[in-house]
């Protein structure tokens, strides 16, 4: 029985913890970067925010032409 216990103890005390550490170190390296899906989502969100910014600028320009003092009126109602 002793012959099997010593390698088992060595395996559990040395080899297994090292294997676990290397496994999680590899997983952390993989998780550091963005996935392709994350990058695609961020790119889509950037495009949407640019569209919204353009729309806001256009609306403000229209309001400036139609109602010149709309900005000061809004501050007065707050």
From TrEMBL:
Task: State the organism named in the record.
Answer: Iodidimonas gelatinilytica
Instruction: Report the Pfam families cross-referenced here.
Output: PspB
Coiled-coil ranges per the record? 35-62
Phylogenetic lineage = Bacteria, Pseudomonadati, Pseudomonadota, Alphaproteobacteria, Iodidimonadales
Q: Which keywords does this Swiss-Prot/TrEMBL entry list?
A: Coiled coil, Membrane, Transmembrane, Transmembrane helix
* InterPro entries registered for this protein in UniProt: Phageshock_PspB (IPR009554)
Q: NCBIfam families given for it?
A: phageshock_pspB
Transmembrane portions of the chain: 6-25
Q: Superkingdom of this entry's organism? A: Bacteria
Q: Name one GO biological process term.
A: regulation of DNA-templated transcription
- Mind telling me what this protein is named? Phage shock protein B
